[in-house]
Amino acid sequence: MPSYVYDFVEGNKDLKDLLGGKGANLCEMTRLGLPVPPGFIVSTDACRVYLSTGAEPPELGRQIAEHLHLLEGRMGQQLGDRDDPLLLSVRSGAKFSMPGMMETILNVGLTDTTIAGLIRHSGDERFAWDAYRRLIHMFGKTVYGVPDELFEHALDVAKRAAGASNDLGLSAGQLHELVDEYKKIFAAHAGRDFPQAPHEQLQLAVRSVFDSWNSERATVYRRQERIPADLGTAVTVMAMVFGNLGANSGTGVAFTRDPATGARGIYGDYLANAQGEDVVAGIRNTLSLQELEQLDPRSFGQLNRIMDRLEHHYRDLCDIEFTIERGKLWMLQTRVGKRTAAAAFIIASQLVDEGVIDLDEALRRVSGEQLVRLMFPAFDLSHADPPIATGIPASPGAAVGRAIFEAHRAAAESGPTILVRRETNPDDMPGIVAAQGILTSRGGKTSHAAVVARGLGKTCVCGAEALDVDVDARQFTVDGVTVREGDVISIDGTTGNVYVGELPVRPSPVVRYFEGELSPLADPLVAAVDRLVGHADAKRRLGVMANADTPDDARRARRFGAAGIGLCRTEHMFLGERRMLIERLILATDEQARQAALDELLPLQRNDFIEIFRELDGLPVVVRLIDPPLHEFLPALADLTATVAAAQARGEDPGRDGELLVAVRRMHEQNPMLGLRGVRLGLVIPELFAMQVRAVAQAAAVRVAAGGNPRPEIMVPLVGTMIEVPRAALTAAEIATAADFFSFGTNDLTQMGWGFSRDDVEAAFFPRYLQLGIFGASPFETIDRTGIGRLIRIAVAEGRAARPELVVGVCGEHGGDPESVRFFHEAGLDYVSCSPYRVPVARLEAGRATVL
Ligand code: ADP
Ligand code: MG
Ligand code: MG
Q1: If both were cysteines, with which of 20, 381, 699, 737 could 234 make a disulfide (CB 3.0 to 4.6 Å apart)?
Q2: Taking the chain, what is the end-to-end CA distance rounded to the nearest angstrom?
Q3: How remote is the CA of residue 275 from the centroid of ligand 1, in Å?
Q4: Quick one: which ligand is closest to 752's CA?
């Protein structure tokens, strides 16, 4: 017969799947001999049966009765006893902690009858009525869905009538009256009287914990945290201990180290004469643990020893809940505690110093996602007004600047700007690059603005739907507030909040360290980052290069630890004033005019490369030949058509615009993404590729003549050295006979592998996909292991079989995504290349991949 109920002495911390985190850790503390009130756990198996069949497993009732009987024996008390009643807490607890998502009911077993026994036995009438009012409140809310506010309101009325500033001001008699009031509220909303049978209370409480698994807030939380929906929760039933038994009692929460900063030393809050959540609910001012030391040195000393023991046992920061009942300390919960990204690094490094863990383990305790968070600046919110709107936090950081509504204007501004758009598109690039931050009213985490901003390390809040953005009027309005062009706003890419005015910003010390502005000894966080990234470097097999196409980015890439440039795009080298040369090239009607345009481009390109080779002297620089379709360098068809039509309407000759229009029409493609680009363009207009290759070679020659050591490599986009279309992956063996190295362009490979265009689908249906859970993460953010990953594995295997010394890397956005980096390690790639700001993240994750 299946077993659904386990005593605390039967479990241990590794049984979280079965007993939930809270239950498993209570078992562990019991095994360690710590003072834990006895109890038992109804397993997640039972919950899953309940959730799938709608009823408790038939044997559950009897198994609970047996364990209750044992518990009663141990306590020398019985549930429902009128002389000395056993009271219970019924607590939820799933495998993963879901803070505040599901309910716990305290003081189960109190009734109009048993309260007399509780009064007599405790000798404290006030306490007993206080416990009873709490039970009716928690039970009513959790089991029968009675609105919280009704109880809160009745409590407020009672406090006011008694002239009490908080709950402690209510006497036994007043609490008794409050209980009567609570019972009326309960009856009115539950359609029945408050249950007076303790066993029925217990049974309903257990069931409501099961039900709370599917409450809306729990469901939403799980989706956000990617916790599977079918795990179910366990239910812990344990003997009550009372922190509300007068001044020498109380309840508290504590951490073995500061979870916000990682600072050593226990840290926590204590509230005397209180029960349960009171300490975190802000009902009265709490005391610090240092103050508890004054109040109850014996319990404080014991608490300290226990926390020390727990930390050594779990080898990590623990958080705990405890209660002191008339001077006796009880442990009610512990777990490895959540912490900020900064604390994660600091604590991991401290634990190494303390000899608790080794450096490999420290590397497992931090993540690339955390390092990303540490690299963005942050707002100082201490004096801030509330936000005017909240959007989707798409790229973390804190940005302040003047609101500007058009990309070219943002690019022209001299001071810091926030580019505000309904949504962005590739035309907005110059403005995005120039702005401190990007704010859009449409689109999600995978919108153009979001993806580009993350790549550039820019702050971005997108999809702030409350904003009514009017680009023509150069303003947006929200809730009656109008922000005009030039007004200063602040956006927080970590929370999605938008503020009017300038909030003070703190630059990230971690970035300053990578930039070389701060010594690794500057502060504990920087020291920990330095140490762990250093260890990752020592462990990793995967090389880390950077995507950089300006001397500035190249310098930063080097400072941030890149072993070279894995992708130097050349497109931008044809923008700005040089665009005219491309126009001339396209419009050229004879060989001579064409060559003249190319001759002008050559020295410009050569200089671009000379500078980059100088910055990366001695390191490889992979130059990608021009990739996008040429029409991207020409005016838009619609604009041009309008200009020409207008000229014709005025009876004027459209001149050059007319010629351009003919060319643009000729080159117009239904699906440019699948059109004349990359290597195809190179085959149709070979002179452009030839000019670029010549520029690379001449630049290298110039550098060699100057005593430098340039190491250029040339990359042919789409299908060539780059593997960007599925067919290229499937014919890798053949390509490897011609290519010296492979670089996966995973952005294009993802688009073409899935058959959808990023810019289109991210705005259209991705948000819905993410909501429905069809994607956990966008495949443009995190590599799709099963599909695109398979193409990569095939290409690596077949390419290497054909050419064993083939070097294989990746240069898509995925190269800086922690989860994807781990995949590229597994797939046996030689290197990843990512934006300079992601280089440290990739270094860390490449190291972690070897120890996970
Ligand atoms: P959560 O998971 O939301 O923290 P808990 O199950 O930990 O919920 O319980 C809520 C509160 O009740 C906590 O403050 C906890 O310490 C307290 N509590 C739980 N069980 C007992 C008990 N047996 N005696 C006294 N207080 C308890
Ligand atoms: Mg708790
Ligand atoms: Mg590409």
Answers
A1: 20
A2: 38
A3: 9
A4: 3
Is 104 touching ligand 1 by the criterion CB < 6 Å?
Answer: yes
| Ligand 1 contacts CB of residue 399 (under 6 A) | no
Beta strands in 616-689 (DSSP E): 620-624
825 assigned to active site:
no
Q: Is 25 near ligand 1, meaning CB less than 6 Å away?
A: no
Mutate to test the pocket of ligand 1, among 22, 25, 86, 89 (most ligand atoms within 8 A of CB): 89
Q: In sequence order, what DSSP letters do the residues of 185-230 get, joined into one string?
A: HHHHHHSSPPP--HHHHHHHHHHHHHHHTTSHHHHHHHHHHT--TT
Q: Nearest ligand to the C-alpha of residue 677?
A: 3
Atom of ligand 1 nearest to the CA of 93: 2
Q: Which atom of ligand 1 is nearest to the CA of 100?
A: 3
88-94, strands of its sheet edge to edge: 5-7, 39-42, 233-239, 88-94, 105-108
pLDDT tens for 480-514 read 999 999 999 999 988 899 999 999 988 889 999 99
Show the tokens assigned to 637: 């068809």
Place of tokens 């990303």: 372
Residues with CB under 5 A from ligand 3 (ion): 724, 745, 748
Q: Model-level pTM?
A: 0.84
Q: Is the CB of 238 under 6 A from ligand 1?
A: yes
What are the structure tokens assigned to 642, written together? 């309008």
Please give the Cα distance from 832 to 825 (Å, whole number).
9
Of the listed 67, 448, 535, 814, which one is catalytic?
Answer: 448
Q: Which ligand is nearest to the CA of 750?
A: 3
Residue nearest to atom 11 of ligand 1 (CA): 276
d(CA 481, CA 219): 34
Dihedrals φ, ψ of 540, to 5°?
Answer: -75, 150
pLDDT reported for residue 38: 98
- Taking the centre of ligand 3 as the mean of its atom positions, its distance from the CA of residue 836, in whole angstroms, is 18
Q: How far is CA 218 from CA 46, 222, 513, in A?
A: 19, 6, 40
The predicted pLDDT at position 446 comes to 63
Nearest to 335 by CA among 19, 7, 11, 23: 23
Residue 508 Cα distances to 273, 373, 376, 437, angstroms: 42, 9, 6, 16
From residue 202, alpha-carbon distances to 69, 136, 153, 175 in Å are 13, 13, 27, 24
Q: What is the pLDDT of residues 523-540, one digit of tens each?
A: 999 999 999 999 999 999
Residue 615 has pLDDT above 90, yes or no: yes
Pick the catalytic residue from 27, 460, 811, 834: 811
Ligand nearest to the CA of 319: 2
Q: Which two tokens stand for residue 601?
A: 């481009």
**Active-site residue 834, yes or no?**
no
Q: What is the pLDDT of residues 33-44, one digit of tens each?
A: 999 999 999 999
In the numeric block, which tokens belong to residue 797? 């295997």
Return the sign of the alpha-carbon dihedral for residues 288, 292, 294, 295: positive
Whose tokens are 């020291």? That residue is 527
Contacts of 420 (CB under 8 A, 6+ apart): 403, 404, 405, 439, 440, 467, 469, 476, 483, 489
The protein residue with its alpha carbon nearest to ligand 1, atom 12, reads 276
Atom of ligand 1 at shortest distance to CA of 322? 16
pLDDT tens per residue across span 116-163: 999 999 999 999 999 999 999 999 999 999 998 999 999 999 999 999
Query: For residues 460 and 407, is the Cβ–Cβ distance under 8 A?
Result: no
CA distance 826 to 35: 46
The token duo for 831 is: 């290197």
Q: What pLDDT, on a 0 to 100 scale, did the predictor assign at position 160?
A: 95
Q: How far is the CA of 809 from the centre of ligand 3 (A)?
A: 14
- For residue 202, the CA-to-ligand 3 centroid distance in Å is 62
What's the pLDDT score for residue 455?
A: 65
Distance 675 CA to ligand 1 centre (A): 63
- 303 contacts 254 by C-beta, under 8 angstroms: yes
